[in-house]
Amino acid sequence: MANSSSNRKNEENLYNSWMNNQQEELKELQNAIVRARKNELNDDELNELLRKMVNNFQGYANSRSRLARVDVSPFFAPTWCTPLENSVLWIGGCRPSTFIRLIYALCGIEIQSHTARYLQGMKIGEFGHLSGEQITMIDKLQRQIILEERRFSSRLASLQEDVVDQPFAMAARIYDTERGENEIGPLNKHGEDMSNLLEEVDELRMKTLKEILGILTPIQGVEYLAATKRIRLCLQQWGEKREQEHNSNNN
Q1: Rounded CA gap, 42 and 35, in Å?
Q2: In the chain, which residues have pLDDT < 70?
């Protein structure tokens, strides 16, 4: 029990450290956007910043994977997240396809906010004028990612069904009611399978992010990452606010 509690504390500490890092990275990205618009940063410098952010994400995913090998269940229903945050989780994180939908959302917001300027062909922001080639590449990537998501969702469903199938049913039958013990082998196998699934899905998330940044221009990539971090931080704040309101009403 002590080892389990210690590992889950490590998982929570990893998450909290990651979220604090999101705050710092957002500030760094916002500063880079301002400087780039003043021509104080070139594409090479922006690409270097993007590589740094991607490497940080990879490091976080690697740390998650190591902890999940010991205890994977909390990553599918993390107690360190609010119910609102957990309500949008898909296999331990966000759906990779939402990475792509955010691009369309950002593009639409910019166009809708500056319609007159857009129709006049004026520059309204990096996402207000994605090229036709970029749109085509993004659409193709989206279709590929959705297929991958469906495949992983099917695997998750199969693993969940296995909980009441063999060998779990057999383990239930041989449960020792006097000693309160049974064979934990099936649980270990299920945990290993779930850990493998989480690792593969994290790889898909990383692959999707890299593909997107490869399609976008450097400044678009920086603005895109800034938007993803704003959304993640806002979701956390909204969840915490909702919990505070709920607790106040109960009291």
Answers
A1: 9
A2: 1-4, 109-128, 164-187, 251
**Contacts for 34 with CB less than 8 Å, ≥ 6 apart:** none
Write out the E strands in 62-150: none
Which amino acid type is present at position 180? G
Q: How far is CA 100 from CA 47, 134, 148, 218, in A?
A: 20, 12, 14, 17
pTM attached to this predicted model: 0.83
pLDDT tens track for 44-57: 999 999 999 999 99
Render 157-173 in DSSP notation, one character per residue: HHHHHHTTSTTHHHHHH
Phi, psi of 161 (to 5 degrees): -70, -30
The Cα–Cα gap between 152 and 171 comes to 27
Place of tokens 């010991």: 70
Is the distance from CB of 222 to CB of 31 less than 8 angstroms? no
**Helices (H) then strands (E): counts for the chain:** 10, 0
The tokens describing 110, both together, are 């910019």
Report the alpha-carbon distance of residue 140 to residue 38 in Å, rounded: 34
Q: How far apart are CA 13 and CA 16, in angstroms?
A: 5
| Paired tokens of 224 | 């895109």
Number of residues that this document lists for the chain: 251
Report phi then psi at 176, rounded to 5: -85, 100
